[in-house]
Amino acid sequence: MLNSSLKQLSALLAARKISSAELTSEFLERSRALNLDYNAFITINEEASLAQARAADMMIASGRAQPLTGIPIAQKDIFCTRGWLTTCGSRMLSNFISPYDAGVVERFNVAGAVNIGKTNMDEFAMGSSNETSFYGPVKNPWDITAVPGGSSGGSACAVAARMAPAATGTDTGGSIRQPAALCGISGLKPTYGLVSRYGMIAFASSLDQGGPMAKSAEDLALMLNVMAGFDERDSTSLQREPEDYTRNLEKPLEGLRIGLPKEYFVKEISDDVARTVEAAIAEYRKLGAKTVEVSLPNTKLSVPVYYVLAPAEASSNLSRFDGVRYGYRAPEYADLNDMYRKSRAQGFGAEVKRRILIGTYVLSHGYYDAYYIQAQKLRRLMALDFAEAFKQCDIIMGPASPTVAFNLGEKSSDPVQMYLSDAYTIAVNLAGLPAMSIPAGFGKNNRPVGLQIIGNYFAEAQILNVAHQYQLATDWHLRAPGPL
Ligand code: GLN
Predict the structure, then answer these.
(1) Three-state DSSP class for 105?
(2) Which of 422, 426, 452 to mutate to test the pocket of ligand 1 (most atoms within 8 A of CB)?
(3) What is residue 306's predicted lDDT score, i.e. its pLDDT?
(4) What pLDDT shows up at residue 385?
(5) 0.85 cut: is pTM over it?
(6) Which residue's CA is the closest to the ligand 1 atom numbered 5?
């Protein structure tokens, strides 16, 4: 059962072969035990989860079940969850019990899904290794000396280690796709605006997007059916007709045109990742797809552009944490200014402070034009690069991460090295496109490799189809670390 798909679990629940309370208990037990080693969860709350499971069992008994009713889902601790500690991985929110639900959490609640716990993450989603969390690093379940990726590393670890059937994540510059790749699971970052940001603690609002993380593309499609939708409380939420994201899953790939950006297959990518991604592309050719070389000429600028824009937005978003209304407040201070200063000095970790400093700098008088405005112009050019490429192909493929999971501590003292681990994911956020990472095999030290699939705006159903067809032909997505 630990390796079952959401569809299989849903069928078991519908046939009353198992109750949601039993299913939830089993995953809770496993999570409690494995969390001692992996640190994937910040909060596990058996009582709250089981109460939801019993309510789901009543929904099923009364014939009101929806596809995810009764299924345990882990929530990244960036999503405000009523009555639950919601920390965003920070000391600043280490005492924050949310009084309301995020739009995403609300949708899972309405669907009857069970919240199985809040997952660990880099502080305020700033990081690529989960090492910036106030709650300590998450371990990669394939090798506990390796990082799980970040910032949704707790979610990726929980799904990979089968502590939860599925989880939510957020992706500002790669935080769903990169940890999915490093932990050998599937993750989808939707088109910007498709999933509500209401109650999703803000990092860089023009880039942040919530999305699903699970074992397979089919599971992701079922989750996106719940997560996507207009929310008037989010000013950038898109008003669109609801879609069934499972509708194209079974389509054959005959004639699909796959664009391979020449800037993605360069010396910066490690041999094991290149080899594995090329093997995955060869599999697609067998499935009837054709490949064409495309160019995304501004790829090299994506990391520098992101590290101007994301910190600029973060410095503004994080100004709300002042120790006054909620969150951490320094125990001792001389006056109001001293209280602000000490609360922020003690409440934020080093990486968050670095971003606030950079962001404040690039937004300040005299530097705004030189950095912020320039970066905005380049962001536009990057979106145009994708638009050009999509004239020649239906989807774009490449690696999700330049290397397999690195070791804990390997990059934590060198922020630039850490930033470069998102070299293949960031441009997608700058353009607002949908993209996913799916497991494609193993590289050095038997650590997982992710294949990235990028689609045009609103092409979620298409990239899910492309991923699902590969998963019908291969079994990488069913491999789990350790015995089940
Ligand atoms: N690793 C990138 C960063 O540190 C992206 C994080 C994210 O997507 N939330 O900003």
Answers:
(1) helix
(2) 422
(3) 98
(4) 98
(5) yes
(6) 173
For 401, the domain range is 6-255+397-478
Domain assignment present for residue 360? The answer is no
- Residue 175 CA to ligand 1 centre (angstroms): 5
Q: Look at residue 173 and tell me if it is in a domain.
A: yes
In a domain, 260, yes or no: no
Confidence at 266, pLDDT banded by 50, 70, 90: confident
How many whole angstroms from 36 Cα to the centroid of ligand 1?
Answer: 26
Residue type, 18: I
40: domain CATH number is: 3.90.1300.10
**What are the residue numbers of the active site?**
76, 151, 175
Burial of 332 (0-12, 13-18, 19+ CB in 10 A): exposed
Q: Would you state the pLDDT for residue 268?
A: 82
- Whether 265 is in a domain gets the answer no
Residue 413 burial (10 A CB sphere; 0-12, 13-18, 19+): exposed
Whether the per-residue pLDDT at 483 is higher than 80: the answer is no
Cα 18 to ligand 1 centre (Å): 39
User: What percentage of residues in the chain have a pLDDT greater than 70?
Assistant: 100
Which pLDDT tens digit goes with each residue over 180-194? 999 999 999 999 999
Q: What is the DSSP string of 369-386?
A: IIIIIHHHHHHHHHHHHH
How many domains are there within the chain? 1
